[in-house]
Design a protein that fits this description.
With 99 residues, the protein is α+β, with helices and mostly antiparallel strands. The protein has a single domain, classed as Phosphatidylinositol 3-kinase Catalytic Subunit, Chain A, domain 1 (Ubiquitin-like (UB roll), Roll), CATH 3.10.20.90. The chain has a five-stranded mixed β-sheet with strand order 2-1-5-3-4, with helices on one face. The longest helix is centred in the middle third of the chain and has 12 residues. It is globular and about 30 Å long. It catalyses: Thiol-dependent hydrolysis of ester, thioester, amide, peptide and isopeptide bonds formed by the C-terminal Gly of ubiquitin (a 76-residue protein attached to proteins as an intracellular targeting signal). Its EC number is 3.4.19.12. Pfam families: OTU1_UBXL (PF21403).
């Protein structure tokens, strides 16, 4: 276990903790770290959970606020340029997944 932590700490990405619709916790690593865009977060989360990216809702913080909502209109364009850091996310934050 200690070796695993050393490998992850040396990695350029950072980890977000996910809580799915069934309450099952998991972790997601974004390779570009805080420079990752919200679009990359959506794609990576969709692949990890099997939930269609266009239907994905992610909430974070306390009280939980919407970080990503289902794609409508021009929201996809903003996601392509806004970083997870600009969205207020940090390493090891908990995100709640809804579909």
């Amino acid at each position: 276990l200690f070796h695993f932590l050393l490998i992850n700490m040396a990695s350029p990405g950072f980890v977000l903790r996910l809580r799915g619709p069934a309450g099952t916790p998991s972790q997601l690593e974004l390779e570009r770290g805080e420079a990752s865009t919200l679009a990359e977060l959506r794609d990576t989360t969709a692949k990890a959970t099997g939930i269609a990216g266009t239907n994905l809702t992610l909430k974070g913080g306390f009280p939980p606020k919407t970080i990503l909502a289902p794609i409508e209109g021009d929201s996809a364009a903003e996601e392509g340029t806004k970083s997870v850091k600009e969205a207020g996310l940090a390493h090891m934050d908990i995100l709640i997944i809804e579909s």
